[in-house]
Write a structure and sequence with these properties.
The complex is a heterodimer of chains A (273) and B (284). Chain A is mainly alpha-helical. Chain A has a single domain, classed as Orthogonal Bundle (MetI-like fold), CATH 1.10.3720. Chain A contains 14 helices and no strands. In chain A, α7 packs parallel to α12. The longest helix of chain A has 34 residues. Chain B is an all-alpha fold. Chain B folds into two domains: 34 residues; 233 residues, MetI-like fold (Orthogonal Bundle). In chain B, α3 packs across α14. Classes of the chains: A mainly alpha (273), B mainly alpha (284). At the A-B interface, α1, α2, α4, α5 and α6 of A face α2, α4, α5, α6 and α8 of B.
Chain lengths: 273, 284
């Protein structure tokens, strides 16, 4: 490129970027990989196939999946309403969508636990009227993860809905399509990749989430204990190999999931042209 | 607002039926109110549940004050460092072509996909008693884990991508013609940066700094792993909230939480203003 000859600062900025990236991110992260090389493979398998560890993985992934599905459904409606309709207080609702990005997870955690615990005001209501307990159950984890997921879905779907070419809708409706047909055949397929991205981001974030979950989860081994909490428990017992093995497994699974989702998105985008 | 006007001139087949419109609005707002507004309001109610006196005495406790100071200190160290990095990385990535650029962008995003607990764990593995450099630091009597340096390092890792992530897409869209003109007229590199580039990116930069700061002050999982939860020493404000909550000291927990919620509200307001400034710039 011709610009690289006139633009100054190639060497200093690139070398500083690489240096700082290595120091803050790459070297610390590689510790996890190198530390796990110290583990004997059978020993590693022993740790991660332990019943309690498997149960924690099941809890983490199933609650993150459930929360991402629910958040995608409602998040889509929220994004739709915010881009297409006008109503009083729209600006306020638009701004508050980002609350989970701005509110520290520990604060979200204690307040959600206060609301949904059996003596809390919603917890009590659900218990008395529907015999439903959310706090200190896996359902509580799902509630916390829905909270965390909202902005991921809304903020990925919203711009795509906004830029959606309304001429396509007009063409379809002038050719006699019903409103529902226009939505199902024109609008939704075009929004779907963005929705899938939002879903994936929520899921990935939910699997690793810690702060907002631990207060509401109850943290019962085998039932409502999440993987990040199990890593901390191992650390507190000075079981470094245990913590390392679980953390590495989780990291690898998260990366594989992100890769898979990227491929899926690529495929969806290609198919829809 | 313009969408509203153009909407009115469309024929009714393009609009959703009234009952669809109102039920969708009801579902969306009900969801947002239940999951976002109620928790925010409840933080404030809980904080003042025992009256103003209890609230302010909880805030003036020495441990609470120490936690606030530590949170401020952590943000004061990490935000400027990651801001300088973000600007340098954006400049390197958007102004030059080089091999491995896409890999570099992917690597910058890496901390986003790592669980906070794992982000803390890696520093324990490096600097803890059984860690790589652990024994060296023990010999020299330097504490990293269960001390302030560990908290700063973990926060640095967690907030690493925020500023760079905001700046890279923006500077990619901006063409470098203005900068090239300044340079060819004899301005120095620094002068070009401060007089041409910085004014162009200032809103996006502030936006990134704002998000970076909110996360730096609010980070919980990673900090919780490296801090050791020593009251008055290594508790940040979010950790102090956790400890108080677990000790059933509800007023203290929610008083701390109300400060953090206030920070979140200020962040959201500033964010809305900055978004407005950015879109206004784009249309001018």
């Amino acid at each position: 490129m011709s610009q690289s000859r006139i633009m100054p600062g190639f060497r200093p900025t690139v070398s500083f970027t690489v240096f700082y990236l290595s120091l803050v991110v790459l070297i610390p992260l590689s510790t996890l990989v190198f530390k796990s090389f110290e583990l004997n493979f059978d020993y590693y398998l022993n740790i991660i196939t332990h019943k309690r560890v498997v149960a924690a993985f099941r809890v983490s992934f199933s609650t993150a999946l459930g929360a991402a599905i629910i958040a995608s459904f409602f998040g889509f409606i929220v994004a739709w309403v915010l881009t297409r309709y006008s109503f009083a207080g729209k600006r306020f609702f638009h701004a508050i969508i980002d609350l989970p990005f701005a509110l520290p997870t520990a604060v979200a955690g204690i307040v959600l636990a206060t609301i949904f615990q059996p003596s809390g005001f919603l917890g009590k209501f659900l218990k008395e009227n529907f015999d439903l307990q959310i706090g200190f159950k896996p359902a509580g984890i799902v509630v916390a993860l829905i909270f965390i997921s909202i902005p991921f879905v809304v903020r990925t779907v919203e711009p795509v809905l906004q830029e959606f070419d309304s001429r396509m809708e007009e063409a379809a409706s002038s050719l006699g399509a019903t409103r529902w047909q226009v939505f199902a055949k024109i609008i939704f397929p075009n929004i779907f990749p963005a929705l899938l991205t939002g879903f994936a981001l929520s899921f990935a974030r939910g699997v690793g989430e810690y702060g907002s979950v631990i207060f509401i989860a109850g943290n019962l081994p085998y039932i409502s204990e999440i993987v990040p909490l199990l890593i901390i428990t191992k650390l507190e017992q000075y079981d470094m190999p245990g913590a390392t093995a679980i953390a590495l497994t989780m990291l690898v699974i998260s990366f594989l999931l992100l890769l898979l989702i990227n491929l899926l998105q690529h495929w969806v985008r290609k198919r829809s042209g | 607002m313009s969408t509203v006007i153009s909407r009115n001139v469309h024929q009714s087949t393009l609009d959703d039926a009234n009952w669809v419109r109102w039920s969708l609005i009801a579902v969306a707002l009900g969801f947002v109110i239940l999951f976002l507004c109620v928790p925010l309001v409840l933080v404030i109610i809980q904080a003042f549940s025992k009256g103003f006196g209890a609230y302010f005495s909880a805030l003036s406790e020495p441990d609470m004050q120490a936690a606030m100071r530590l949170t401020l200190l952590t943000a004061l160290i990490t935000v400027p460092l990651n801001t300088v990095f973000g600007v340098a990385a954006a400049w390197a990535i958007t102004r030059f072509e080089f091999r491995g650029k896409n890999l570099l962008i992917t690597l910058i995003d890496l901390p986003f996909s790592v669980s906070p607990v794992i982000s803390g764990l890696i520093f324990v593995l490096m600097f803890g008693a059984q860690g790589w450099f652990g024994s060296w630091f023990v010999e020299h009597d330097i504490k990293i884990i269960f001390a302030v340096p560990g908290i700063v390092l973990a926060t640095l890792f967690i907030t690493f991508p925020f500023v760079a992530r905001q700046l890279i897409p923006l500077t990619q869209e901006m063409c470098s013609e203005e900068e090239e003109a300044a340079l060819s007229l004899g301005a120095s590199g620094w002068k070009t940066f401060f007089l041409i580039t910085l004014p162009n990116i200032k809103w996006a930069l502030l936006y990134g700094v704002l998000l970076c700061n909110a996360r730096a002050m609010g980070e919980f999982g990673a900090v919780s792993v490296v801090s050791g939860h020593i009251r008055g020493m290594t508790n940040t404000l979010p950790l102090h909230v956790e400890v108080s909550y677990n000790e059933y000291d509800s007023v203290s927990a929610f008083a701390g939480a109300s400060i953090l919620a206030g920070l979140a509200i200020v962040t959201l307001i500033l964010k809305t203003i900055l978004e407005w400034k950015q879109t206004n710039r784009a249309t001018v």
